[in-house]
Write a structure and sequence with these properties.
With 169 residues, this protein is α/β, with parallel strands linked by helices. The protein has five helices and seven strands. It has helices spanning 16-29, 40-44, 110-115, 130-143, 152-158, and strands spanning 5-10, 33-36, 59-62, 75-79, 86-87, 96-101, 118-121. The radius of gyration is 16 Å and the shape is globular.
């Protein structure tokens, strides 16, 4: 049986703040690696900050092909607002998944869509931005999983040092 592995592919991202938010989502929701194509992020990255140092824990790497960098056992899941795609609430996430997202100001190429095992869309009126879309997809994956890490222990480990509020019952 293959280990569960989650990787993210970003198509030519232009905004370092969006990539930073994707990295934060990857850390929060347990993704293993993030890949990106294009040159726009490399140019803009020097102005970016990583407030949680997620890039020390999760690989962020530029690649030529988001298909070629996928684990050979991973299912390729394109996330794009296209006709014929599966609505996210109806989608069952595979254990080993490589999610590919389009750019903030465009869409995935037909060639990448044609190579996907699944194409999923978020049922929104209009488009979410890149980071928001990644957050929703990764949250959906965790929400539909049988992971049993939720509870007060997770809250204590995850919350900000200044947050000591609790629900009194």
């Amino acid at each position: 049986m293959n280990k569960t592995k989650v990787t993210i592919g970003l198509t030519n991202p232009k905004s370092p703040s969006n990539v930073g938010s994707v990295m934060r989502a990857a850390g929060c929701f347990g993704a293993d690696e993030v890949y990106y194509t294009g040159k726009r992020y490399d140019i803009a990255a020097k102005f970016s900050t990583d407030t949680q140092n997620i890039s020390d824990k999760i690989l962020l790497e530029g690649v030529e092909s988001l298909i070629d960098c996928a684990d050979p056992h991973a299912k390729i899941i394109c996330v794009e607002l296209v006709e014929g795609a599966t609505c996210l609430p109806d989608f069952q996430h595979p254990p080993n998944a490589h999610y590919i997202f389009g750019p903030e100001d465009g869409n995935l190429s037909q060639d990448i869509i044609d190579q996907a095992d699944e194409v999923v869309y978020l049922p929104t009126v209009g488009c979410l931005n890149l980071a928001a879309t990644v957050n929703v997809v990764l949250y959906d994956r965790v929400a539909k999983s049988d992971l049993s890490f939720a509870g007060d222990e997770l809250i204590r480990a995850s919350r900000d040092v200044n947050n000591r509020a609790r629900v009194k019952r």
